[in-house]
Amino acid sequence: xxxxxxxxxxIKILEAAKNIFQTKGMDGARMQEIADExxxxxxxxxxxxxxxxxxxxxxxxQAFSLLAPQLNAILNDDSSIxxxxxxxxxxxxxxxxxxxxxxxxxxxxxxxxxxxxVKLKQNTGFxxxxxxxxxxxxxxxxxxLIPINADQLFVNIIALNIFPFLGKPLIKAFTxxxxxxxKEFVESRKTEVSKFIINSIKRS
Amino acid sequence: xxxxxxxxxxIKILEAAKNIFQTKGMDGARMQEIADExxxxxxxxxxxxxxxxxxxxxxxxQAFSLLAPQLNAILNDDSSIxxxxxxxxxxxxxxxxxxxxxxxxxxxxxxxxxxxxVKLKQNTGFxxxxxxxxxxxxxxxxxxLIPINADQLFVNIIALNIFPFLGKPLIKAFTxxxxxxxKEFVESRKTEVSKFIINSIKRS
DNA sequence: ACATTTGTTAACCATTTGGTTAAACTAATA
DNA sequence: TATTAGTTTAACCAAATGGTTAACAAATGT
Lengths: 204, 204
Description:
Two copies of one chain form a homodimer.
Chain A: H1 3-28, H2 31-38, H3 42-49, H4 52-76, H5 81-98, H6 102-112, H7 116-122, H8 130-141, H9 150-166, H10 168-175, H11 179-201
Helix pairs in contact in A: 1-2, 1-4, 1-6, 2-3, 4-5, 5-9, 5-11, 9-11
The structure holds a DNA duplex (30 and 30 nucleotides).
């Protein structure tokens, strides 16, 4: 057999499964649909991944593993909180514009199965806030930032960055934007969000 | 027949459907499961609501109709932006603590079926930002607020308030909180979030 | 009292769905 | 070139699922 072809079929399946699972969710996805998307026989899905559940987990883990490094990189580098916020906002928004279904997929499946995150947490490389917390407290002590709880600040940062992708249909409707102007709206958040946060927490 | 009993059966179904649909989503929900939850025969679901789709829509519309007035009340009253933000943050968080599955349910289903919001928009009472925008611009001109785009501000407000309910499993894992301390965390956001926003936009 | 409408149930049905099987095919190896 | 191991396919299967039906029960109106 040909190892290259092995991989391409296996990867074609994962790719197709990613598309279907991320748009329709675990429950809404059909094995046949994934097979069609990958242009292979349905039996191949089971040949390579055994069951829908295992195929789903392969997709989910891959999706999650795309997000964690983004967070870690910024939480653990040595830059100032202001720089962290600027970098994160810029990078994360750019990344999400390329993977717009990802936040919804992860959040929905995690909410449907809360125990699932316990498994992920055991993984090395699961984001850790310790260094970020220390840095926040340090800058508060130095008078750079006004007093704020680091957990609250962290949640505020990710909320402001992720929500536009989660709530896109809602926001589009509320603010009366079409696809194009919504894209511009999100694009402008790359800088607006960090200004907004820094305005709030930086001692002036 | 007995009109009171009619209503209770019909309402028992809607109540059960709400529980199941909101936790499992349209695709994950089973008609039999809803019937069991309501402790009635499965055929009754079809007798009163015709199909799964229509039952789902009844649940969805009811859920959505709980959110819209909350938004409208605050967008359209005559208070200052600062008061709007304080009221909204306090009220919305309290409300969501009582209906924690609501945001996820609405956001997930809306993302799976983007056209669906068009129907909702035709409804009278669909939230409208005009008055809010005018008030924001007014306060900017008066020098109360620093310049900020009203749409961006609006998205920031709802992002900061809704995200803790959408991303609960994620945030719990990242910040290492158990159920109780997460509850306290969210509780404290009732005031923290408005302080955070006002800090950012109020001219000092 | 009786016919009619409304509500409820159990059994049933067609279709869909995840998953299996066995045979056919491919390509490297001995 | 025969063997072997891995790959792919079509046909199949049992269980689950949304939905229907027909008989029965309980109100309601006349």
